[in-house]
Task: structure prediction
Amino acid sequence: MAMTGEQQQGLGWPVTMQPGQAGLGWPRSDEPEGPGAAMSEVDAGDAEAILDPGSYVQADDAEDAPQVEEAVVSGVLRAIGTAIFFESDAPGQAGASARSEAVPVTPKGVEADTSLLLEMKSETPASRIQAPPGPKRARFDVPEAGESPAPGGETPVPGVTPEQASQEAAKAKKNAEEGVERKSLPSPDETRIIVVANQKGGVGKTTTAVNLAAGLAMGGLKVLVVDLDPQGNASTALGIDHESGTPGTYEVLIDGATIAEHAQLSEEAPNLMVLPATIDLAAAEIELVSTVAREGRLAKALRTYLKTHDIDYVFVDCPPSLGLLTLNGLVAAREILVPIQCEYYALEGVSQLVNTINLVKGELNDELQLSTVLLTMFDARTRLAAQVTDEVRAHFAEETLHTVIPRSVRISEAPSYGQTVLTYHPESVGAVCYLRAAEEIALRGANKENER
Ligand code: ADP
Ligand code: MG
Result:
């Protein structure tokens, strides 16, 4: 991938950065380094000062006033940098994402990250992130615990009785075998752009994005999935090739390519388009720093795409880090869907996420709202799962979907075959629940319009 001089400058950020210039929450070069030094000076009051609403320039106008835009975006990033930390679910992935609150990022850390990214780009990174090579392996049809004799029979999920689960599963299986289209879901009046976000890694963001997208597409709706994660897990799960060099999100964000040029049709469902992500996107996080209107590039590309493409739902799958990639997702979207894992610490950080949303909402995207919470990886055998469910419902009474996604081996196996669970094991409880969740989202969208 040839880089322009401007992009190379972006990669060389530590050299081109001037002392005192606002950055990604990293300390200025004339300030002390070390844990605590970077973040301690950026408190809420400071963030407010940086984010003086009077100085805010809309993304569209930002090309005329890059310096003001720089201050605003840097402000948001600095402020959220203090509030949010992101876990990475696999060590070494995407270089820059494996951070914790206790270890603020210093310029030194940035250099290390950059070199890691470059190293990842040059040394056949495909081997690190690709789906299993070769043709799809034969799937092993050993019944999952709780799947037999009736799916869901032994692993009750709130809101789904065993009888309902087995009936729906039998129907889903029959439909899948006969190639019958699923029942039509109502389309929203205007495109719903939903970013799937949670600062924790491994909570089911990608799984949720791809299965809901496929579920809605199977219901006759037109869906686009934007993979914003350099790991490309959403692309894998939707059977889209994403080895290094495959054009996709990187080209849209950095080269100004259109989504229409690089979106691919997924075989998982009719009318399901995917803008794939490759490991090259890891470098975009750094390259975007020196780019004009850097936080609004996805929003702009989406606006252009939606002018000429009739799409009902857009799902944006974010990486487990809050850098410019995720910020692009938050600025492009109207709604946030937060998957919450029914485990310890499920709610830890959710209030921080809400603060982040409010910051972005106030400064960069007025329309953004946390519209949907989905409980994932529910394990009926633990009392903890039920407790977490209650707690989440108490906090997000309106937003939480009735449908809960159970922990299911089928769900976790599906991506290794380049499939969603909806086609991999349509009769599994996991598939039935994701279909129900997709239906609930579609009906809520339609009802909201009727209420207006
Ligand atoms: P994130 O995108 O938030 O990092 P993923 O969707 O990649 O999370 O999920 C993390 C891991 O958990 C993956 O291996 C995925 O297959 C698995 N997983 C997700 N949802 C479930 C579920 N309901 N039951 C079992 N495994 C799941
Ligand atoms: Mg993911």
